[in-house]
Amino acid sequence: MKVPQFENKSIGLVLSGGGVRGMAHIGVIKAMEEFGLEAKIVAGSSVGALIGALYANGNSVLDMMRFFKETPLFKYNFFALAKPGLIDTERYVNIFKAYFPHDSFEGLQRELHVVATNLEQGEEEFITSGKLIKPLLASAALPPVFSPVTYKGMLYADGGIMNNFPSEPLVKKVDCVIGSNVSIVSKLQKKDLNNSIQLTGRVTGLMVYAINRAKIDKCDLVFEPQELEHIGILDRKGLEKAYAIGYETAVREFEKSRVL
Question: Taking CA 136 as the corner, what is the angle to CA 135 and CA 137, rounded to the nearest 5 degrees?
Fold first, then answer.
């Protein structure tokens, strides 16, 4: 099932941050495989960086889902001591080594670009060479749940703080860009904004969405399933549902492209 829009063209894949909703990225990758599409370069932020690394590493969709199902979010001996954050992010190093024993960007099968936020310099930073695991942990270290990661002597945190849709490295390197954005913003009613937590979440979501909107619109094809709004970013019960939403959305869009 070929998609004429992408036939004989190099493809870049951008994966946004968004916690558990990021399982939709894996669904998109599954659909891409079924339609004979393969990304040459991948760029990701936060959970998108993790999934992008697994994809670039050649891991199967089953492996990707297993990674997230088996990796604990909250484990009593992972709680941070004398560090900002509830969970010590660097305690995940050994878990990641089981999937990335080479611990290097150069050991991947595809080119990967990961974005993380340098907290000390107040800058976003793209990382695409050298050690792999520390940059992945840094890109996914969402404050205040996960502690910042020390990388090259400085503190780094979630890439989505400054760049939640890191398409920049792909623009001049590929013919077409496919984007998967799970940090979506849908319409709400007044009843959905009746406390400080809901209001803060809504404002933060709108800010992230507005900052990245122009880049998202420039993709040749982008997936933004609105149904993901009902899945909490740390709700592990939503893993399979988010995956299914991503897969079904991508299949529908690829089918439309195929018959145009």
Answer: 90
**Distance separating the N- and C-terminal Cα atoms of the chain:** 13
User: How does pLDDT run across 139-170, given as a tens digit for each residue?
Assistant: 999 888 889 999 999 999 999 999 999 999 99
Report the alpha-carbon angle 164-170-173, nearest 5: 175
- What pLDDT score was predicted for residue 34? 95
- pLDDT of 260 strictly over 50: no
Interatomic CA distance for residues 39 and 28, integer angstroms: 12
Cα 86 from Cα 64, distance rounded (Å): 25
Please compute, for residue 136, the number of CA atoms within 13 A of its CA located in the half-sphere on the CB side: 27
177 alpha-carbon distance from chain centroid: 15
Handedness of CA 139, 145, 149, 155 (dihedral sign): positive
- Residue 91 has a CB neighbour count (10 Å cut-off) of 16
Which one of 45, 139, 158, 183 is the catalytic residue?
Answer: 158
Length of the chain: 260
Cα-to-chain-centroid distance, residue 256: 25
pLDDT over 80 at 186, yes or no:
no
Catalytic residue list contains 88: no
Contact 148, 82 (CB under 8 A): no
Phi, psi of 170 (to 5 degrees): -95, -20
* pTM, full prediction: 0.91
To the query of whether residue 158 is one of the catalytic residues in this protein, the response is yes
Strand partners, 177: 12
pLDDT per residue as tens digits for the range 233-246? 878 899 999 999 99
